[in-house]
Design goal:
It contains 10 helices and 7 strands. With 320 residues, the protein is α+β, with helices and mostly antiparallel strands. Among the domains are: 120 residues, 2-Layer Sandwich (Alpha-Beta Plaits); 99 residues, GMP Synthetase, Chain A, domain 3, CATH 3.30.300. It is globular and about 65 Å long.
Amino acid sequence: VGIVETKDTPATAAGPSLLRVLVGSEGTYGVITEATMRIHPLPETQDYRGVLFHSLEDGVASFRDLMQSPQLRPAIIRLSDAPETAAYTMMSHEHHGLRRLADNLIERYLKMRGYDLITGSTLLLLGFDGDAEWTAKQWALALEICGDHRGLSLGRAVGRSWMRERYAQPYLRDTLLGHGVMVDTLETATTWSNLMPLYEAMVSAMRGTITATGGGPGYVMTHASHAYEHGASLYSTFLGRQVPDPDPLVRQDQWRAVKRATTDAIMTAGGTLTHHHGIGRDHAPWLEDEVGPVGMKVLRTLKQTLDPTGIMNPGILLLS
């Protein structure tokens, strides 16, 4: 059809953004052959720490206040619910010797303060990038806000551990599948006022469908991240027992039932279909629920204009 070239400017008001349309089309409108990237200098200091809260509600309230503070600019902010906090804690119990003794003493101290890493407390990972003086000032204000919601600072060890191990967990997926464990992730986003209702709807749908499909009680853990002034994303991981039938298609049907029920719950509860995973094939059946019939007509018209023969990444996004 031709070439679309967008200008290299920091911002523009020249009509609807063709750049976003093309980048968001997942290859169905064309191929990106050249891109200009923004770069940022490496920070002098990365100061990442953990803060513990008595409940998810306390953590969410602090999370919101942190993001809506005009003085703060977090480099990372991530709130784990109680099951995810417990999972992190249990995995850290592989330590031995003096490290294990220190962990035990810390847990006893936390329980004396009313926190429990296994049965109810939630962990906030918060970090700031910049020069040492700036990050110190950011942390002083952040800890004040966390303290207003009964947050307890756990120091930098939690942040260092997360930075060191954050990419290790995804590699467990294939190992778990090989041991008969169904595992996958789902994500969405919503406004602050709807965050807890959406969380409850997602978790309830996952747990209920895992049990209904023979997966046992299952295990669902969630964190809020990718935060904004007006809301945040929710990212859930679910695990359950695979059905005994070794047929891959039967096991895929079990997974698909959990995926379908949870996605339906997300849409009903007012969350977005996907915050950052994209549409692809898995989410395509719900796209019209997200954008509406007029929105679908616009997307299909663009497809017909930019790819009249339908050769660009067929079956993705628009299902045809």
